[in-house]
Amino acid sequence: MFIVMVSSECAPVAKVGGLGDVVQGLAKELSIRGHSVEVILPMYDNMRYDRIWGLTQTFDDLWVPYLGHAVHCAVFFGFVDGVKCFFIKPHSSHNFFDRGTYYGNRDDPDRFAFFSRAAMEFLLKSGKHPDIIHCHDWQTGLVPVLLYEIYMHLGMGHPRVCYTLHNLKHQGVCGPEVLRVAGLDPNRLMNGEKLLDHTHPTACNLMKGGIVYANFVSTVSPRYAEEIRSSDLGHGLQGTLAAHAGKFGGVLNGVDYNFWNPEIDWRLPKTYGPNDISGLFDCKDALRDRLMLQDRFKPLVAVISRLDPQKGVHLIRHAIFYTLANGGQFVLLGSASEQGINDEFWGLKHHLNDNPDVHLEIGYDDDLAHLIYAGADMMVVPSAFEPCGLTQMISMKYGTVPVVRATGGLADTVFDANYAHKPYEERNGFTFEHFDTAGLESALGRAIGLWHRYPRYFNQLRINGMRRDYSWNHPGTDYVNIYEWIRA
Predict the structure, then answer these.
(1) Is the same domain home to 287 and 250?
(2) Are 127 and 101 in a shared domain?
């Protein structure tokens, strides 16, 4: 099949969160299976240009309709870790993608409405006729709308659209004038069956448009699919998802084991695998040495996370002091976009600076992340909600036992050591239900207790997790099946 992905991110060249990892990982997996895959991205001024190989201008005559006139765009091509990528660069005083940032501008809906139209115009003018257009999140929610409202009538009747929802907290709710930016008719589309937002009766919902017009809608885990359809995690889109339930489902994301794999990870002092985990303990020694933690017989608990309310920052803070009070060591790697949260954790760092059992690293360091995954005994992921989550899956690959709240993809991948309805060889961590300190303590306390009292079973949990396959192999198969279904 010929598959084109339209996205606002693709790791490592343009990445803010998990969306970039998913686009890159799935594109690589589909390519390995013999499909022709291309990714269309905005050409941001702050991209990692050093991660693009062979960047060249391939199209210089793309004129994109925009509010009664046309914007001249150039299109560049390059390989990003082997993935074929096209980058759209508008020549416009609006500086759509020359902002020094990916998101966070007041006109983000206009910027990505223009990008969606530019992507479709590029497909038309370059003569590309993909079997599948796979678009992602609210930023490209107008792509299927444009295909079936405009481009199908211009000869693009062949492609079918798969639309993936990564996080329903952000839906692209904006004024209806954004539709005119993309060359669409608000009078035709602003009704309850199409793009009218359910919560704001005069607003346009770009994500809803993608759901309504796409041939199939996926989200990033089966549990999250159920949560957003049946609870307030749908943020007002529950009814739309229910109305389109026949073309909606959850597909668990994968992890790139070429990058996250202790058996081949050159960043580690010693590699290891499920048949011999001895190198894991060398990594724990190296982590303590790097962060100047005392070398004592103690469990080492870690958090690698963005520090924002979704990730349970109050529970992360509580986990630090609970771990120290129960004879453990604690390592944190993360930062916050909200100044108040960032200030709070800098304050904690200074308060705990002289404690030889804790280290808080405010920021992100990729090499350190690999060493923490390998050197920690437990990884805490206490999210309020988690569409999929990669942290727990990476942790398991490295033999670090996850302690997670049972929500979204966390519930789909972590099976409690004591209470899961699974055989012992499939249990791989600790879970808790309630988003409060008592819930966290119930799981983290059991994990620390098992580490002390039953080390053989604790190490078996490590090995169980390492043997689980959370690569892109299974989701790759699922998406190929989806593509075949909507083509039929």
Answers:
(1) no
(2) yes
CA 432, chain centre distance (Å): 22
* Residue 235 zone, left/alpha/beta (φ > 0; ψ -120 to 50; rest): left
The pLDDT of residue 346: 97
- Give the Å distances, CA to CA, from 466 to 273, 358, 420, 454: 7, 26, 18, 19
Nearest-angstrom CA–CA distance, 169 and 152: 31
Helix (H) or strand (E) holding 219: strand 216-219
* Domain at 44, CATH number: 3.40.50.2000
DSSP H helical ranges for 176-272: 177-181, 186-189, 206-213, 222-230, 238-243
Whether cis (ω within 30° of 0) applies to the bond prior to 109 is no
Q: Are 430 and 401 in contact (CB under 8 A)?
A: yes
Q: How many domains does the chain have?
A: 2
Query: pTM for this one?
Result: 0.94
Q: Which two tokens stand for residue 85?
A: 């990528």
DSSP H stretches of helix in 70-194: 108-125, 142-149, 177-181, 186-189
Q: CA–CA separation, 173 vs 130, rounded Å?
A: 29
| 236 token code pair | 């007002």
- Which of these, 240, 271, 91, 259, lies nearest to 168 by C-alpha position? 240
Instruction: Return the pLDDT at 252.
Output: 97
The Cα–Cα gap between 334 and 342 comes to 9
Residue 291 phi/psi, 5-degree rounding, is -95, 5
Query: Is residue 241 situated within a structural domain?
Result: yes
pLDDT tens-place string over residues 165-193? 999 999 999 999 999 999 999 999 999 99
Which structural domain, as residue segments, surrounds residue 46? Answer: 2-254+473-487
Given a cut of 90, whether residue 68 has pLDDT beyond it is no
Locate 178 and state its tokens.
């954004």
The H or E element spanning position 53 is strand 52-66
Inform me whether the pLDDT recorded for 461 exceeds 90.
yes
> How many Cα atoms occupy the beta-carbon half-sphere of 358 within 13 Å?
24
pLDDT (tens digit per residue) in 404-439: 999 999 999 999 999 999 999 999 999 999 999 999
Among residues 462, 302, 328, 327, the alpha carbon closest in space to that of 382 is found at: 302
Q: What residues have CB less than 8 Å from 201, skipping those under 6 apart?
A: none
Say if residue 41 is exposed, middle or buried (CB neighbours under 10 Å; 0-12, 13-18, 19+). buried
pLDDT digits (tens, 9 = 90+) for 215-236: 999 999 999 999 999 999 999 9
Euclidean distance between the first and the last CA atom of the chain, given in angstroms as a whole number: 13
Give the type of residue at 445. G
